[in-house]
Specification:
Layout (H helix, E strand, L loop, with lengths): L2 E7 L6 H14 L4 E9 L2 E3 L2 E3 L1 H10 L9 E5 L5 H8 L5 H12 L4 E5 L7 E4 L3 E3 H8 L3 E6 L4 H14 L4 E7 L6 H14 L3 E5 L10 H5 L3 E2 L3
Parallel strand pairs: 1-6, 1-9, 2-5, 2-6, 9-10, 10-11
Antiparallel strand pairs: 1-12, 3-4, 7-8
Helix pairs in contact: 1-2, 6-7
């Protein structure tokens, strides 16, 4: 039976895709049959007349996953906008039933699955007659989450609010990964300790800028994954 984890973040451009690639690489290099899925992607680019899901392509390449990236994304939009707006402008609005169907198709092929979200946990996927936030998708898929944060000034507030909101929504936070971490910064070290203390969530890994691998024990990482039960 497949186990999964949903990757979200304290906001946009915190490094979800980069961390997802490191996670996938760590698992697959450990001999684990691990896969990847990104339900919604905006900011794709046309290459030779084809819309390419860059984030998914990056994760597949860095994570050593020999799969066509187009098959790992349910909704792809060219404009780099919030998904609800990109979907409106493209005339292709998001349907959770399609995402669930694709999710089932993909997770049945793996023992472990990394699902990457978009934006932060309240990122709107649809906001018309039907209102869907990213947290609704997480709840629909019944997944635990890993939060990607930074440890820079202001990150205590960002990480704590994300963790508190998740708990309020009855979403379990398995861990927090600090990206672009500066180990020689006394402030970032203190922020690391404060985030762990204030949220009650363990820091799964601290990732320095440009790191090529995830520095954590594979056993502790696997504990973050939850058996998928829809």
């Amino acid at each position: 039976m497949c186990k999964g984890i949903f990757i979200t973040a304290t906001g946009t451009d915190v490094g979800k895709t980069y961390i997802s690639a490191l996670l996938l690489s760590k698992l697959r290099n450990s001999g684990i049959n691990a896969g990847y899925y990104k339900p919604v992607l905006s900011g794709a680019e046309y290459v030779n007349g084809e819309l390419i899901p860059g984030d998914a392509a990056y994760v597949c390449q860095k994570g050593g996953l020999p799969v066509e990236p187009m098959n790992l994304v349910s909704y792809i939009y060219q404009e780099p906008l919030s998904p609800h707006l990109a979907a409106q402008r493209a005339g292709d609005r998001i349907d959770l039933a399609k995402i669930e169907s694709d999710f089932i198709r993909i997770y049945q092929q793996y023992d472990y699955l990394i699902v990457e979200g978009c934006g932060g946990i309240v990122c709107p996927l649809r906001y018309d007659e039907e209102k869907i936030l990213l947290k609704d998708l997480i709840l629909k898929l019944n997944m635990d989450i890993l939060i990607v944060s930074e440890a820079k000034l202001g990150s205590i507030n960002d990480a704590a609010l994300t963790a508190y909101y998740a708990a309020q929504q009855r979403i379990h936070v398995s861990g927090i990964i600090l990206n672009r971490y500066k180990p020689r910064s006394f402030m970032e070290k203190d922020n690391q300790n404060m985030i762990a203390s204030m949220t009650g969530v363990p820091i799964t890994a601290c990732v320095e800028e440009g790191a090529q691998e995830l520095e954590c024990e594979i056993e502790s990482l696997l504990k973050c994954f939850k058996t998928i039960e829809l």
